[in-house]
């Protein structure tokens, strides 16, 4: 079936259902960062295989909205499809609701499983303001019947309490208490990471994130997991049974919600899909839209066992990184290397580590100008060869049973005499911001948007900035990107809480030249050694848990304060002390050289 | 009429109108910071004369909610009134809606003139959630007939374009364009500062803020000012007439709104009162609640003439401050002085300045422990004598025809040998934050809550903070506190805009010992001398416009970086260069000594 035939089939169904337009977004029912092929409806209907995009189909025309990263790919892949490209990064490009309001009348259809409640309601109010109606209807399922990939059918894996640090019973108890505070007695959970956290289960259904595909409804007196039977082996079933979790089929969730009796139902409007919301028994009048949900907040607060696990995973990760950088400096360039071979080698080193299960995201290895492309991912057809002198930006991470890592180092490859002053200047600006954020202290209640300027301040003095967030939350053997708090310039009302783990990753990107980013993970802990004359609130500080040296050859010492140099030297001492016992003699000597005091 | 008689009269009216409770807030119809006695309904019904409080009257009981600053005063003033004190700073004190929901049934009445639209709607939804009804009705006017002070009847004063820097015609044109962007063709303005800005008029109806009491409605083809006839002399009437402003009586605004024809009406839900909103012609379906209103945003962006005027006012203010501090150091203590006599003397010096019309707020002079009380205002019965050694916190400001000033200096009085190390430490922590904020650079779109930590960062490292905002907006010959942007830890979505003026005023308060605060005004200007390798956005920085030395004897030089010392020396040089030409020889010599490089 070609795209034009698919479009024809869709239009036939649109006509039958009285729809004038149909939107197919590039999302899935679980608000996942990494989607299973089963849900790639936007790609199926348009032929465009990029990660980000939304299709709009009318009776006469079809469109794909995507951003500038994908313009070239979209132009190529849309050839012959009749689908027209809408360049959404261009200043004069209308949004989808704007275009629909300006060009259409009648009714627009969408599959409500693919929209969060809040996104759906936002879309509806924009369309209704413009005189259009929005209708919930899935028109892709009836036509995508041939060769549609299955929903991943990997096994549910019980997750040992020795890693999770809290029993399922206790987590359920805490969530139920939180429901009471919201005057609700049931919560609908669609996010795979929240289900994994609540039930101490993991899986391999999703790339890079150890999740299993399911829905969950927790009530005051029962807990039901909606999951395909084939995903449960004996151990999985026994685990759920031992926790009193009832099991129903994945799609049974809709019927269950229609019949559920409760006084109040809580859901996270940003993360629960509209189809679930629409299914909720209309007799239940109290629907609490809690963003973030109490489950997400609890999950983001790592307990002592989780943090101890993260510290251990960091040591294992550091051994792999040390070996990789030693290999890169001493061995790698004796044979041809590309961005991809480096990434593969790093994965090899990581895979030797205890408890390693996967990478936590697709490694970004950016050589010189490629490092300046923030969302760069090398592909075999056109990845850079590592040759001559230059700047290598390496952003990577591992999933270990006891923790998730995410680290960026920018290093010089080649003759250190050839290091450009601009590179040193930019590297040091980034480092100063990175250190300032790592050293922050702040009272309870402080939000990430208050802290962000610590990382930006030195480069902003020069009129230089970067186009990404400064820090994201990180899960515990779970998603590498996690809410609800973060460290960004944007307003975010969620304060940093004790036990939250964030990245600290400022950068500078010089188009056509190089990219620099320096990233550690930091955990929010009570501040130590406050003044005896403290005014008495609870203060937090960050403990840096990533354990890998920085390339001191790229630092301009004259730009650094003594306080920054002291921090750096203490950090390098900690790295050496904690990592060297796990290295052989040669590796330890290499690390000692890298960790030498500045 | 005693309070008990007033309460009885109110209850009789409540019964006639079927009300079970009546709320009397301590507000006025213009959301003013300083209220005219005419509107002090809360004080009239309770006998409590403090500035902050809300009365709730039921058929059986009466209550006053107020905060801990006023507990003692309230206990004293409520004696014999039957009004019970609700201590709203206490952790277990219910809010008024909570108390009403828990204790009452039926209908609660309020005067909608005393509530902003948003406050009223918030109250209503809380009451309705709890099964109560809210009714708009003014029951104080029918009973407060005897000795009620009039609304102030001072004259409207045309404000010269040579100070305002923009014609009324142009301001109206810009506001009308903004209305179109909001798809509205009329705006209701209840805030006295916005009316003053739009029509280039001032007045003396309000303490410290040169406003005239009125309402204004601007439409695409007309502009109407609702003002008592007695406030218009020939020049005022001629001014309004020349600008095409139609004049109606103050209370005619309600009838006008009822009959107004428009496609859409814009109002600032935080600043326009509910009575105006309720009066709007029900045929007008499109009511745009814009917070902040475009008028408020435009007013906060000072034009070049206004900023030049502020700079001039700062010089005049600096002359007064220099003379005051010289007098304080050399003359004052030869005779007995108190916090109040110092404040009076400072006003004398200011009043000698060109274009001075008033203070911009009631001077806070806090000697030693009194300086630690953030909202301290000395009263004749119990103000401190200035004796021995100690710390004086002096927060004051002037209204000049060409600008508004607001400055805090903390100085040592007495033997400098006696300065405590703790005082120097705290003073320097405050100064470092004050300088860091003054030196900030940031891209367009940055909000004050992102900048705030620059002022807090050094004291937060020690677990020390202050309980007030870091910076507020400041008007131009207008309110000393102005929105919509500010510099606080709280979320505020309004970014800093070019031409915004803010205070920069961190502090440290040691209960029972002393208070330290250091405050300058800063204006947001395009950043100068960015790096040649800027990534190209628009960047802003602050220009410090206050011109008064800091007490260098209170600084611990060892805590300061060379960058901070350089900033301080450059600032002191600027102060001397700009102020000394206006001083006599002795005064200039005094200032030179104070501005000596550190």
Describe the structure.
Chain A is an alpha+beta fold and 598 residues long. Chain A is built from 18 helices and 28 strands. In chain A, the strands form eight sheets. In chain A, strands 4-3-2-1-5-6 form a six-stranded mixed β-sheet, with helices on both faces. In chain A, α13 packs across α14 (339-351) and α15 packs antiparallel against α16 (448-461). In chain A, 49% of the residues are buried. The model of chain A has no long low-confidence stretch (mean pLDDT 96).
Features:
alpha+beta, homodimer, 20% strand, globular, 18 helices, 6-stranded mixed β-sheet, 598 residues
- Tell me, briefly, the overall form of chain A: globular
Number-wise, the strands of chain A total 28
With strands numbered from the N-terminus, the spatial order across the biggest sheet of chain A is 4-3-2-1-5-6
Quickly give the structural class of chain A. Answer: alpha+beta
Gyration radius of chain A, rounded: 25 Å
What pair of chains forms the biggest interface? A-B, 37 and 37 residues
Q: Largest sheet of chain A at a glance?
A: 6 strands, mixed
Q: State the helicity of chain A in percent bands.
A: 25-40%
How large is the count of helical segments of chain A?
Answer: 18
Provide the residue-averaged pLDDT of chain A: 96
Characterize this entry briefly.
The structure is a homodimer of 598-residue chains. Chain A has 18 helices and 28 strands.
Secondary-structure topology with pairs:
Two copies of one chain form a homodimer.
Chain A (H helix, E strand, L loop, with lengths): L2 H14 L4 E5 L15 H6 L7 E5 L3 E5 L4 H7 L5 E5 L8 H8 L3 E4 L6 H13 L3 E4 L20 E2 L2 H4 L3 H14 L4 E4 L2 H8 L1 E2 L12 E5 L3 E4 L7 H9 L2 E4 L3 H8 L4 E4 L6 H6 L6 E4 L4 H7 L3 H27 L8 H13 L4 E4 L4 E4 L22 E7 L1 E3 L2 E2 L2 E7 L7 H18 L2 E3 L4 H14 L9 E3 L8 E6 L13 E4 L2 E4 L3 E4 L2 E7 L12 E6 L17 H18 L5 H10 L4
């Amino acid at each position: 079936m070609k795209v034009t035939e698919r479009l024809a089939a869709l239009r036939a169904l649109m006509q039958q259902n009285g729809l004038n337009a149909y939107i197919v977004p590039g999302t899935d029912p679980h608000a996942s960062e990494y989607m299973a092929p089963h849900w790639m409806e936007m790609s199926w209907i348009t032929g465009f295989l990029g990660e980000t995009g939304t299709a709009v189909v009318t009776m006469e025309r079809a469109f794909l909205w995507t951003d500038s990263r994908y313009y070239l790919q979209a132009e190529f892949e849309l050839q012959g499809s009749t689908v027209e490209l809408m360049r959404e990064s261009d200043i004069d490009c209308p949004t989808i609701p704007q275009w629909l309001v300006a060009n259409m009348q009648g009714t627009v259809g969408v599959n409500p499983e693919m929209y969060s409640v809040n996104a759906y309601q936002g879309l509806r109010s924009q369309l209704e303001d413009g005189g259009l109606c929005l209708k919930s209807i899935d028109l892709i399922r009836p036509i995508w019947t041939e060769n549609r990939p299955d929903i991943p059918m990997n096994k549910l894996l019980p997750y040992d309490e020795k890693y999770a640090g809290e029993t399922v019973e206790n987590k359920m108890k805490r969530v139920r208490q939180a429901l009471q505070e919201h005057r609700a007695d049931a919560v609908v959970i669609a996010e795979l990471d929240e289900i994994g956290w609540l039930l101490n289960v993991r899986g391999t259904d999703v790339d890079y994130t150890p999740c299993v595909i399911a829905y969950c409804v927790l009530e005051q007196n029962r807990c039901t997991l909606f999951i395909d039977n084939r995903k449960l082996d004996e151990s999985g079933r026994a685990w759920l049974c031992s926790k009193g979790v009832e099991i129903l089929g994945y799609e049974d969730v809709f019927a269950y919600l229609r019949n559920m009796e409760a006084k109040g139902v809580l859901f996270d409007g940003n993360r629960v899909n509209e189809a679930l919301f629409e299914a909720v028994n209309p007799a239940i009048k109290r629907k609490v839209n809690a963003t973030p949900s109490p489950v997400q907040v609890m999950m983001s607060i790592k307990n002592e066992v989780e943090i101890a696990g993260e510290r251990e995973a960091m040591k294992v990760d550091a051994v792999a990184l040390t070996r990789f950088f030693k290999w890169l400096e001493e061995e790698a360039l004796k044979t041809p290397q590309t961005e991809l071979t480096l990434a593969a080698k790093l994965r090899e080193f990581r895979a030797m580590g205890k408890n390693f299960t996967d990478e936590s995201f697709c490694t970004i290895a950016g050589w010189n100008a490629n490092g300046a492309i923030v969302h760069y991912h090398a592909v075999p057809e056109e990845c850079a060869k590592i040759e001559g002198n230059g700047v290598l930006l390496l952003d990577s991470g591992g999933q270990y049973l006891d923790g998730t890592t995410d680290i960026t180092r920018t290093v010089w490859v080649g003759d250190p005499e050839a290091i450009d002053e601009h590179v040193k200047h930019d590297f040091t600006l980034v480092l100063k911001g990175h250190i300032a954020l790592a050293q922050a202290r702040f009272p309870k209640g402080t939000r990430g948007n208050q802290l962000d300027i610590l990382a930006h301040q030195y480069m902003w003095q020069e009129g230089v900035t970067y186009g990404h967030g400064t820090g994201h939350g990180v899960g515990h053997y779970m998603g590498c990107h996690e809410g609800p708090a973060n460290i960004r310039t944007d307003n975010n009302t969620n304060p940093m809480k004790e036990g939250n783990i964030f990245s600290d990753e400022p950068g500078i990107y010089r188009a056509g030249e190089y990219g620099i980013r320096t990233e550690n993970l930091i955990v929010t802990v009570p501040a130590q050694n406050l003044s005896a004359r403290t005014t008495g609130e609870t203060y937090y500080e960050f403990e840096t848990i990533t354990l890998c040296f920085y390339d001191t050859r790229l630092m301009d010492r004259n730009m650094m304060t003594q306080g920054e140099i002291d921090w750096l030297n203490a950090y390098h001492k900690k790295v050496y002390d904690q990592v060297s016992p796990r290295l052989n003699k040669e590796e330890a000597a290499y690390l000692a050289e890298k960790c030498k005091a500045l």
